[in-house]
Write a structure and sequence with these properties.
about 525 residues, FAD/NAD(P)-binding domain, Enolase-like, domain 1, alpha/beta, seven-stranded mixed β-sheet, six-stranded antiparallel β-sheet, 29 strands
Length: about 525
């Protein structure tokens, strides 16, 4: 064991996000007598609070940003070190560190290292003062400040941050450009998108809350057989840690048009081709489109004849150009591992993440990785796949900790139940959302079949069947089906005899499978 001093530790973890902090807390619990060093570029770290097991592999928790000293106070064998990892010397087991806010450098020694450096945002026109990528706490505060003076915002992207941002912003017009044919395809299919779309824009206080709940509608269809197939899920060096659930809570996301609730116009099937300045728009004879009230309250329409001058313009791949005060780039992330891989033989996956086996080990001895920085390279269980979410960041960080502790004692760490079944509990637009298994048919053959139940504004339920057995599910609203579906997926129960009654609103499905 290395001597206990400020620049060495038996366990070194890089990254103060949820994966890194979960890793540190788990090691501290398993190995209370071993020294642990957390290297983070930010004095604030992300901690899991209010964790609870919903059922089986289903879990729910909140994320809180805390000072690193809180972690040290809770675990006497943990030290938090401020700095940025700039190079790994795996042969000597040293990490070269740049001290925050200085040009000074130092070396940290370790016996076992876990890389939890997260991911960095892919920003359209990075460096343009009118383009902002939202990834961490600092960028959300900058967005809040810029939004106060904005009359119109162009939002690029279709992930969780873009969804919540469009839903929460007030006092400005929003042009939302997405490359898909439906909103939120990272999390749900076109059917769920249609359920959410009327709720995308919050109604003003005192106004109607949306369409009344109608009779339950059920559909049964197979992807690729007709026009109603499901949309397949997309395959998917910030200093600060990434945003957590409910990142917008406590922020005033209000634009300059205080009298306006919000107007949204969605441009489907397109991306940003180019960001233009006002001078470039004139030189290229571009014709920016005007924005005006749409056919429904809080929705916008577009048309020719825009005479206003804007600080920045976004030309989309569909040929349309829009002027705005601010472009928000929320187009996803890439693993933040460039500094770590330099001069090391760390194997990378096609998505740029560090390849790890089921022990969270990289290709270099005594070096592990977890969270957004890594890519699962083992053969996954039939109902699990990697998706860069807070849930898996916590699970991977904790599993990496168990593996490091076990390997230090010459043991093997078994995979937890959470790696048997993909699960994610979240919320969109005020609705509870639970994702189970291959909820969008990820990686399944075309012979999959879908059962769908939609009850007006109350709930949306989708089941993915493969050869008569449940392979995944999307539950929106208070369905109380998560426990039953969790078991049906893992047990591989043949559901062929039940047919469409599986989702019949007048049938208590739990009675079938008690």
């Amino acid at each position: 064991m290395l001597a206990m001093d400020s620049r060495s530790a038996k366990y070194l973890v890089i990254g103060g996000g949820i994966a890194g902090v979960s890793c540190v807390e788990e090691i501290a619990s398993l190995c209370p007598d071993d020294d642990i060093l957390l290297l983070t570029a930010s004095p604030a770290v992300k901690s899991v609070i209010n964790w609870r097991q919903v059922y089986g592999a289903l879990e729910q928790f909140d994320v809180e940003e805390r000072a690193g000293s809180h972690l040290e106070a809770a675990h006497p064998n943990v030290r938090v070190h401020l700095g940025t990892a700039c190079r790994l010397d795996a042969a000597r087991k040293y990490v070269h560190v740049k001290v925050v806010h200085t040009d000074a450098g130092e070396e940290l020694a370790y016996e076992r290292l876990c890389i939890c450096t997260g991911a960095r945002p892919k920003i359209v026109a990075d460096g343009n003062p009118h383009v902002l990528g939202i990834r961490d706490t600092d960028s959300t505060q900058e967005f809040q400040k810029k939004l106060e003076k904005a009359r119109r915002v162009v939002v690029i992207g279709n992930g969780g941050i873009a969804l919540e941002l469009v839903h929460e912003v007030r006092g400005c017009d929003v042009i939302w450009a997405i490359k898909d044919r439906a909103i939120g395809t990272s999390f749900f299919d076109a059917g769920a998108a249609a359920f959410f779309l009327p709720h995308l824009v919050k109604t003003a206080p005192g106004s109607a809350s949306g369409a009344a709940s109608g009779p339950c509608k059920r559909q049964r269809y197979a992807p690729g057989r007709g026009s109603h197939g499901s949309a397949q899920a997309e395959q998917r060096a910030a200093l600060g840690t990434a945003l957590g659930p409910d990142w917008h809570e406590g922020l005033s996301l209000e634009g300059a048009q205080k009298e306006l609730s919000l107007r949204v116009h969605v441009e489907y099937g397109c991306e940003v081709e180019r960001i233009l300045s006002p001078e470039e728009v004139v030189a290229l004879s571009e014709t920016p489109l005007a924005f005006f009230p749409g056919p429904r309250p809080h929705w916008g329409g577009v048309g020719v004849g825009c005479a206003e001058l804007w600080p920045v313009y976004a030309r989309l791949t569909n040929g349309r150009t829009f002027g705005c005060d601010l472009v928000v780039s929320a187009t996803g992330v890439v693993p933040n591992v460039a500094a770590i891989i330099a001069r090391n033989e760390l194997a990378l996956a096609d998505d740029g993440g560090l390849r790890v086996d089921e022990q969270m080990q990289t290709s270099v001895p005594c070096v592990y990785a977890a969270g957004d920085a890594c890519s699962a390279a083992w053969e996954p269980r039939p109902h699990w796949f990697q998706m860069r979410l807070w849930t898996q960041a916590r699970q991977m960080g904790a599993h990496a900790a168990r593996s490091m502790a076990a390997h230090a004692d010459g043991r093997h760490a078994e995979l937890d139940l959470c790696f048997d079944l993909f699960t994610h509990v979240t919320s969109f637009f005020g609705y509870k959302v639970i994702l189970l298994g291959r909820f969008n048919g990820q990686g399944l053959a075309t012979r999959q079949e879908l059962l769908v139940r939609s009850s007006g504004t109350l709930e949306y339920v989708k089941v993915v069947l493969l050869d008569g057995r449940m392979a995944g599910a999307v539950l929106v609203g208070d369905t109380d089906l998560e426990e039953t579906f969790h078991n049906l997926i893992l047990n591989g129960t043949d559901l062929t005899p039940y047919g469409e009654d599986l989702l019949h609103p007048d049938v208590d499905i739990e009675d079938y499978f008690d």
